[in-house]
Structures are given as structure tokens and as C-alpha cells.
UniProtKB/TrEMBL annotation:
It is found in: Endomembrane system. Signal peptide: none annotated. Keywords: Cell wall biogenesis/degradation, Glycosyltransferase, Membrane, Transferase, Transmembrane, Transmembrane helix. Its main location: membrane. The chain crosses the membrane at residues 23-41, 53-73, 522-541, 561-584, 596-613, 651-671, 683-701, 713-736. This is Cellulose synthase-like protein G3 isoform X2. The keyword Transmembrane helix applies. The keyword Transmembrane helix applies. It is a multi-pass membrane protein. It comes from Ziziphus jujuba.
Length: 741
């Protein structure tokens, strides 16, 4: 009766580090002021030559960028919040018949980079949610337009009729079959039921992989007339992945299909939107908008879950957990979405490529959760469908009343009217002259459509929640080779540029719409590529100066030295602390900061360049899908925690040049000290920086020395880098000599 007796659905605790963070921010800010003052002094008093002016100016600009980024980063340290949910209580408060229906979207784009068995496992893990089955609908978007993917899903549907009752009956925790069978639940003592289901799974897998390998669905695999009709669409030569009509196939219909125990099955719908070479499809954002409309036409559930094909559900209770927030009307009236972190079980022990991306998926997430809520991470996010129709108090209806978020679908999903509308809204011409991608739906204009969409939704006034249960709600795949990681980050860098330099720049537009803390939190990521300036300057300038015996930092006995030491140790120490508090290890943190430097020298440069080439109309970039195929040999090297260079990527060049430069400067500088031409006290800071650079370049040295191995630095990259390192050093020496005389 009284609200106070109601069982708790969720709690939130503000971090105990909040006060400490704020005090430290004030102290650190003062140190930054002092540093800028010193820069002004040096530039004024000591830049007597062109070269020294150039050096001090570079250092000043670098430190200004660092100070700017530091300022924005503070927003996420002001009020981190940790939440907990109690899904066991939800059924005490909300009757099961009142649970909202759930539409799940799964995106896939390429059957060779994203094996259909991976998609199948994701789909099965969600179909087996502990949630009223008739309320769950799955929509798989296939941008690869691939018949084998459709085939795989049809096979998955058959397998599901065994798998879902099996999970229910045995209360299986891992509902992703691959994860379940890999977890070694049964060795010798495996009972016959488990054994049978495993055989069923294996035979499906063999069939699907066979079809994928052949690239088409052989007639021997098609049993039903209905399936024959579906696959006949691929039988025309005009059907290619870039040019084809819409394919919508209802694989499971909950009003009709039952599992082997007679229980209903969820809806399962395959969607491959219409494609044409002449119009733009907006990559994943476009795919999701098609799913938003197709699902509105067919089921129009008020809650929508978006997943990438490589993110399977690891916890069948997840929808109940989300209901704890969605059903609490007092929490945040403008609650738009609940985001889960991306977690990756396959990363190696010390996470050499920092694929955990802890800074984004955990530290920033709890930081923003204490403000207006986290950004959208593209996958593992449950939305209220209403958010896609503009702000909480500024409703922009979709152009067709039947797509209205509150409209109720009364016709069965396979009725001609419903199918006709679904096909209509999946066409590439449909969005012309509509608000899709600009005012409603997922937002276009950035390769990080997730970040951009979350940002725009929050600017419109929606709030979000970060939900980070102990048992991961979703598990995904992270890239396991360096070039894949760098390409992924390069794509993100391009996408972030597209936001930073648009009229929606978080620092201007965002701070106006949401206030400075949220604007800065988004701004930190939007402007992350500017870090290429300080990272590059600190990777080369002190080293080149050291090589030439030029002192550019205060000597150890100078009181200013303490300021530098404090700034360095303070920033690194706080970063380490944040990392450890969120379950990291020192080793992982070291690798994370190393990847940050590596990205600064590669992804940020190449991403920025590609962005500018594109804005000049010289070059177009697309969404380069990350490969999820796991090569055994590669995985073995990855497990040994050895960096994988192997391919001739230009992004390795700056890393290799930096490795040479730091090596040369470090030993050159020390040699100078022994010879007596260098003063140790004056050059200690630079020797330290070069040493630090060398420590961070360790994987590159290793890659240079094991060139025989497939993962070594290719000889061409080595030679180019050597020549470059040589010329840069020479040019710098000339520059100094020339301007001194
Ligand atoms: O034209 C496209 C391109 C991609 N995708 C899908 O987008 C997803 C993400 O692609 P992936 O190559 O795995 O990119 P990641 O870098 O791993 O993804 C991160 O970054 C993306 C933005 O760049 C977000 O969309 C993702 O959710 C986020 O996990 C995959 O399911 C793809 O199938 C499409 O559906 N259509
Ligand atoms: Mn991915």
C-alpha cells in the first residue's frame, strides 16, 4: 500500500572518491596555470633564436592541448555513480502480462568478416531470454545481403525449438550455445539430453559453415516450398550485395510457431534492406533506421534492444534488470535508454591492445551516469522507442501514423498489409524528404553513429542509465591483431572529427544544450584526435633536442622541475588509480597507456588526414567492418601477448620511426654524458622521456627483431622508417645549427 514498503528495484551510490577528485582537480588546475606561466616566461626570455622559439612554441601548444583535454576530462570525475539493480523484485511490482514487448535488433554486414554462426549464436542467446516469449521479436539486419546468412537463421530457428526448452528446463545460465558448449559443463558424465542437443548444434554448424563456404544455398538444403521462394530472390544475376531489392523473411512467427514442448517461440525476422549503388545507405545507422521502421510496422514494441552480431547475451535476466529502471517513473522521467558496457571474454591476460577500452566503457560511463547518463555504445543498449521521435517535450511524429511509437499493430505480422508496409519502409528511397537520420531515428553524419546518436538524444533532453551488473549482460569479440585495432580506432577518430567539426560540436552546441559538464564529457571524445599534437611532440622533440645536446626542460635542481614531476606523476597516477578502482591491473593499465600513445601516433594522424581529405572531396571513407574471424595461428600469437605487425600498414611507420628516434636519443644522450659533452642534470628530463618512449616502444623493437615470424615488422616498413628517422634527425640538426649561427 505505502510506497515505502515496496521492494527496492535499484540503488545508486555516489563514488567516495568524488571529494578527493574535486580537491585534486583544483590543485592540478593551479599547477597547470603555473606551467603556462612558465611557458610564457621561457618563450619571452629564452627564445633567442628561431630554433629555440620553434621548440618552445611546440611545447606550449602541446601543453595547451593537454590542458584543454584535461579540463574536459574533469567532468567525468566530478560525480561518478555506481548502481545496482534487484531484478528478483520486479515481478513483485509488475505483473508479467504488463511487461512491455521487446524488439531486438541484430546487425550484420558481411558473411566473411562476420561468420553467420556468430550471428546465429547471438540470436539464440537473445531468443532464450527469461522473458515472456510472445513479447520478444528479433530482427536481423543483413547489410551483406547474403543468402547463407538467411539460411543460417532458418537453421537457427529449427535448433531453437530444441534449445529454448532445453535452457528453460535446465535453467541454463549461458544461453549462447557456443559459450555453453565451450564452458565444459559436461565431460564424461554428460547426460544423454545434453549430448543430443550438442549433436544437433554440431550438425547445424557443419551445414551452415558448408553453405557459407560455398557462398550459396544448395538445393539439397531447401526443404520447404516457402524457403525455396525466399532463396529464389538471390537467383537473379542482378542480385549483388550492393544492389538488390528488399528481402524480408519471417522465419519464426510467434502466433504460429511452437517449440518441441508446444511453447510459443519468439518472432524471428530477417531483413536485408534495399540497396543501390547510386544512393547512400548510412552504414549501420541506416540499417538500424530500417529496422526501427520495419519493426514498427510489424510489432512496434515500446522497448528496443540494439546488438551487434558479435555481442551475445550472457545473462537471461537482462530485460528484467532493465525493467527495474524503465518501470520506475520517479527515477528519471526523461529516461531514454539503458546502456550496458561492452565486455570481451576473449582478450588476453594483460590486454595488450587495450581492447577492453576501460576508459570509455567503464570509467567514463560511471562518470557520465552521475550527470545525465552515459553515451550510447552501439550495442547492448535498451531504448524506449519514443526517444527516436525527438525530445521528451518536442514530439516529431513519423510520416506514417502506423509508425507512430504508440500505434498498436493489430494485424498478424505475415498479413499482406503489414508485409507491404514493411517492404515499403525498407526501400532506399523511403527516407528522402523525411526527418529520418536528422530529427528522428539514429543520426547520420558520423562514422560513430552510436556516439553521435546518444549525444543528440541527450541534447534533446533525454537521460540515460549505465547498468553494469557483476555478471556481464553481454559478451562481444574484440579485434586481436594490431592492424585491426588501429583501423577500428581510426574509424572512430574519423567519426569523432565529423562530430567535433560539425555544427553540433559538443563544446559549443553541447554545453548550451546540456550544460558544461555533459558538453565537456562528450567533447573530450570528440576532440581526442587533437592529442596527436602533444603525443607527437613528446615522442620526437625532446629526443631530437637531446640528440643535439640542447636542454629544453628545467634541470633537476631547478624548482620548476618539481612542477613538471608533479604534473606527470599526478596525471599518470590518477589515471592508474581510476583504472585499478574499476577492476584493472597495473599491467593492463600500462598496456592501456601504451596503446594511447600508439593511437596518438597512428590512428589520430591517419584518421585526421582521411577526414580532411574527405572534406576536400578527394577521398571517401566508409565503415570498414572489423573482422570477427579467428585464425588459430593468429590467436595463438595473441595469447602469447606478442604484438602482431605482419601486414604492411602505413600506420606502423610513425611507431617505428618513434622507436628509432627514442632509441637513438636515449643512447646518444647517455653517451654524451659519459663523454662529458652533455650535462646529466640539465638533460635528465629528456633522457627520462626518451627512456619512457623506449619502454613504450618495446613491442616495436620486438617486432623489428623477429622479422622471420609472421607477426614481425615487415622489412619495407623498417626501411622506410629508418630512412625517415635519419632524415628527421638530420633536418633537425641542420635547423638548429643554421638558426644558431
Ligand atoms: O554498413 C554497415 C556497417 C556495419 N554494420 C554493423 O555494425 C556493427 C559494428 O561493426 P564492427 O565492425 O563490429 O565495429 P566496431 O568498431 O567493433 O563497433 C563499435 O563501433 C561502431 C561505430 O563505429 C558501433 O556501431 C559499434 O556498436 C561499436 O561496437 C556490426 O554488427 C556490423 O555488422 C552494419 O550493419 N552495416
Ligand atoms: Mn564490433
Amino acid at each position: 500500500m505505502e510506497a515505502s514498503h515496496a521492494p527496492t528495484l535499484h540503488t545508486a551510490n555516489v563514488s567516495r572518491r568524488t571529494t578527493m577528485n574535486r580537491v585534486f582537480a583544483v590543485v592540478y588546475a593551479m599547477a597547470i596555470m603555473a606551467l603556462l606561466y612558465r611557458h610564457a616566461l621561457t618563450l619571452h626570455l629564452h627564445s633567442t633564436t628561431v630554433s629555440s622559439f620553434f621548440i618552445y612554441l611546440c611545447l606550449l601548444i602541446s601543453d595547451l592541448v593537454l590542458a584543454f583535454m584535461w579540463t574536459m576530462l574533469q567532468s567525468i570525475r566530478m560525480r561518478p555513480v555506481y548502481r545496482k539493480e534487484f531484478p528478483e523484485n520486479i515481478k513483485k511490482l509488475v505483473r508479467e502480462s504488463e511487461f512491455p514487448a521487446l524488439d531486438v535488433f541484430i546487425c550484420t554486414a558481411d558473411p566473411y568478416k562476420e561468420p553467420p554462426m556468430r550471428v546465429v549464436n547471438t540470436a539464440l542467446s537473445v531468443m532464450a531470454y527469461d522473458y515472456p516469449t510472445e513479447k520478444v521479436s528479433l530482427y536481423v539486419s543483413d547489410d551483406g545481403g547474403s543468402a547463407p546468412t538467411l539460411f543460417a537463421l532458418m537453421e537457427a530457428a529449427k535448433f531453437a525449438s530444441h534449445w529454448l526448452p532445453f535452457c528453460r528446463k535446465n535453467n541454463v545460465a549461458e544461453r549462447c550455445p557456443d559459450a555453453y558448449f565451450a564452458a565444459n559443463h559436461f565431460s564424461s558424465s554428460s547426460d544423454s539430453e545434453t549430448h543430443k542437443i550438442k549433436i544437433l548444434y554440431e550438425s547445424m554448424k557443419v551445414k551452415v559453415e558448408n553453405v557459407v563456404e560455398r557462398g550459396k544455398v544448395g538445393e539439397e538444403y531447401i526443404v520447404h516450398e516457402r524457403d525455396l521462394q525466399a532463396f529464389s530472390k538471390w537467383n537473379t544475376p542482378e542480385f549483388t550485395r550492393h544492389e538488390h531489392p528488399t528481402v524480408i523473411q519471417v522465419i519464426l512467427d510467434s502466433s504460429r510457431d511452437k517449440d518441441i514442448t508446444g511453447h510459443v517461440m519468439p518472432n524471428l525476422i530477417y531483413v536485408s534492406r534495399e540497396k543501390s549503388r547510386t544512393s547512400s545507405h548510412h552504414f549501420k545507422a541506416g540499417a538500424l533506421n530500417v529496422l526501427l521502421r520495419v519493426s514498427a510496422a510489424m510489432t512496434n514494441a515500446p522497448v528496443v534492444l540494439t546488438l551487434d552480431c558479435d555481442m551475445y547475451s550472457n545473462d537471461p535476466q537482462t530485460p528484467l534488470r532493465v525493467l527495474c529502471y524503465l518501470s520506475d517513473k520517479n527515477l528519471r522521467p526523461e529516461l531514454g535508454y539503458v546502456q550496458f558496457p561492452q565486455r570481451f571474454p576473449g582478450i588476453n591476460k594483460n590486454d595488450i591492445y587495450a581492447c577492453e577500452v576501460k576508459n570509455i566503457f567503464q570509467i567514463t560511463a560511471v562518470g557520465m551516469d552521475g550527470l545525465a547518463g552515459p553515451s550510447y555504445y552501439g550495442t547492448g543498449c535498451l531504448f524506449s522507442r519514443r526517444v527516436f521521435c525527438c525530445g521528451p517535450s518536442a514530439f516529431v511524429p513519423p510520416e506514417i501514423p502506423r509508425l507512430h511509437p504508440e500505434s498498436v499493430v493489430e494485424k498478424p505480422i505475415q498479413s499482406p498489409e503489414v508485409l507491404k508496409l514493411a517492404h515499403n519502409v525498407a526501400g532506399y528511397n523511403y527516407e528522402k524528404q523525411t526527418h529520418w537520420g536528422f530529427k528522428i531515428g539514429m543520426r547520420y553524419g558520423s562514422l560513430v553513429e552510436d556516439y553521435f546518436t546518444g549525444y543528440r538524444l541527450q541534447c534533446e533532453g533525454w537521460n540515460s542509465i549505465f547498468c553494469n551488473p557483476e555478471r556481464a549482460a553481454f559478451y562481444g569479440d574484440a579485434p586481436i591483431s594490431l592492424v585491426d585495432v588501429l583501423n577500428q580506432h581510426k574509424r572512430w577518430a574519423i567519426g569523432l572529427h565529423e562530430v567535433a567539426l560539425s555544427k553540433y560540436c559538443p563544446v559549443t552546441y553541447g554545453t548550451q544544450a546540456m550544460g558544461p559538464p555533459m558538453g565537456f564529457a562528450y567533447g573530450y571524445y570528440a576532440f581526442s584526435s587533437t592529442l596527436l599534437i602533444p603525443i607527437t611532440v613528446y615522442a620526437f622533440l625532446p629526443q631530437l633536442a637531446l640528440f643535439n645536446g640542447i636542454t629544453i626542460f628545467p634541470k633537476v635542481s631547478d624548482p620548476w622541475f618539481l612542477l613538471y614531476a608533479f604534473l606527470f606523476v599526478g596525471a599518470y597516477g590518477q589515471d592508474l588509480l581510476d583504472f585499478l578502482v574499476h577492476g584493472g591491473t597495473v599491467q593492463r593499465w600500462w598496456n592501456d597507456q601504451r596503446m594511447w600513445l600508439i593511437r596518438g601516433l597512428s590512428c589520430f594522424w591517419f584518421g585526421s588526414t582521411e577526414y580532411f581529405l574527405k572534406s576536400l572531396g578527394i577521398y571517401t571513407h566508409g565503415f570498414n567492418v572489423t573482422s570477427k574471424v579467428l585464425d588459430d595461428e593468429q590467436r595463438k600469437r595473441y595469447e602469447q601477448e606478442v604484438f602482431e605487425f605482419g601486414v604492411q600498414s602505413p600506420m606502423f611507420v610513425p611507431l617505428t620511426v618513434a622507436a628509432f628516434a627514442n632509441f637513438g636519443a636515449f643512447f646518444g644522450g647517455i653517451l654524451g654524458v659519459f663523454r662529458g659533452s652533455n650535462d646529466l642534470e640539465e638533460l635528465l628530463v629528456q633522457i627520462f622521456i626518451a627512456g619512457f618512449g623506449m619502454l613504450n616502444s618495446w613491442p616495436v623493437y620486438h617486432g623489428l627483431l623477429m622479422r622471420g615470424d609472421k607477426g614481425g615488422v615487415p622489412i619495407k616498413i623498417t626501411l622506410i622508417s629508418m630512412v625517415l628517422a635519419f632524415f628527421v634527425t638530420l633536418a633537425f640538426s641542420f635547423f638548429c645549427e643554421f638558426s644558431l649561427s
